[in-house]
Fold this protein.
Amino acid sequence: MMNAYFITEKDFKNFVSAMVQSLTVIGPVAKRKKFVFAKLESAEDLRLDYDVTLLPPKKEFFPPSQDMVRFEKDKYEGCISPQEKILLGVHFYDIKAIDMTDRLFREKNEDWNYLANREAATIIGSNIQTISERAFWGTVGKDVPPKGHDGFITKINGGYVYETRGDKGEALVKFGSFAKATDAQVKEARAVNENVMGKCPEKLNRSSKEIAEKVRKAFSKEAFWEALAEDCFSCGSCNIVCPTCYCFDVQDNWNLDQVSGARTRYWDACLTEDFAKVSLGGGATENFREERAERFRHRIMRKASYLNEKLGGPACVGCGRCSAACTSDIADPVNVINKIMEA
Amino acid sequence: MHCNCSYSDKNIFLPKETEILKVEQPTELEKHFTLKMKDGATMAFAPGQILEVSLFGYGEIPIGFASSPTRKDSFDIVVRSVGRVSKAINKLEKGQSVFVRGPLGSGFDLDKLRGHDVLIIAGGIGLCPTRSLIQYIMDRRSEFKKFTLFYGAKDPSQQLFLSDLANWRKSNDVDYYETVDKGDEKWTGNVGVITTLFKKTQISPDTRAVICGPPVMFKFVIAELDKVGIPRSNVYVDLERRMKCGVGKCGHCQINDKYVCVDGPVFSYADIEHLEEAL
Ligand code: SF4
Ligand code: SF4
Ligand code: FES
């Protein structure tokens, strides 16, 4: 079911208020000078004019720490307990990223610790009103359309067009005074979303396919990767802020009572030193990606090449979060990819 | 514990309980456990597959099966004390429980080995996962042609499965050759790296070769197999990597774009020789 509705600016506020009163609504809110996805306490909190959030919305399905098994003495059980929530105001690049993690957690062995949270969520996108300084979503993975969301809101003159995609999105219509959108309004919304695509400050100049091939071939240019990673602190920030990174560590912890506890997964980062290190016993270790250049390269390979076949395009959506998060400013995929493409 | 259990059968991280039937300690660092599923089920697996073995409050570690699926009543694992989890497991005794998830990954494609000469080259604890295949071949000996086994250990005190070794030395079902990097006063056998065993016997180019051992070993052994003329598509490698999830999600075990925990740990060498991070 795909329907297009229109709601006036004033009624939109009431719509958000009504949802906030009866549902858990997560949306972009201001945090000092930046933005984060957080639970809305009132309609005023919602900042659809945000540029990009510090952390991507994946934390709602794949939280930074998540118990997977809880134990107490000799008893244990799984603890998948999804909470229904609305994610409101997700930009299209993050919608693409969620669709990718959906597929990756579903492929081969379905991971319901993620999927149950995902199924309990309703995702409503919104158009980009402010462009972040490091964005390049206009030119990355252009063949991969955003999908998997339940509705999309676009700001046009005098109000918003709300396009629903299926039952979950349709179910929200009852919270506001919506009218059927006119053809002209739908057209205007489309133009708004198309126009923004050319406005990113950073750009990739080649197709995903060309990039995937040439980046993969650059694997053995050791000196190139070493030079790029020279100022890398192996901090893993570029992984942590990335909407398509989903590596994790698993650890057991005892509760204070020392008889119960949990097996928990935590976000992990392939840029960190010990990510691929094993102990062999007797103090011996083997680190399969010992050099920071090897780890730096691995991330770029994953973003630009390794997953392309599986996902139909690159596992990078051009949000620019890694570029902004890197203290040394070396993580920007555009910089790395363009260097490879120009060589 | 207040969990929503409607998803419990869908949780791929939920382990199953096993009971320890027997514990042996072959070396200073290793313990050899014989396990049985608490629910009475048979663990159905292929040699080369792995398990995530765990103890609550300590964690999980990936371990290969050390016995053959032809022996249905129980299965074996060998745990080397290297970290917090393995040290805790190695304190367990007969009758206690250990928890497992699996079988995971892809093991040996036995149909590709059947009807051919088989050579297994095992270095160090690489003998543990290959013991599953060795037992399998010994149990169904007529399905395979000439069977040769090379085993290399650091020194005699590091040798595993001592009663197996004694049997293999005498057995007509396997051409067994062993070596140690460094002998002791009692050692009268071969001293030298594992590749020195190639001089001891004749290997036919139509052999299916299996390699499992420390990372440094692979390249040297493959060079020898190339000399024999065994095509690389008939060479199988059993690889070790850091593993956390065992189900292709956590990213720790990746070799370029392959996941050792699902695509492996057993790979045909022809399938991975182009991967820069493989060997
Ligand atoms: S590239 Fe930058 S953000 Fe990533 S690990 Fe290195 S220093 Fe940290
Ligand atoms: S690699 Fe960087 S730009 Fe690409 S999706 Fe991840 S954080 Fe965003
Ligand atoms: S061990 Fe987690 S992906 Fe292989």
In short: The CA atoms of residues 12 and 58 of chain B lie 19 Å apart. The two ends of chain B are 45 Å apart (CA to CA).
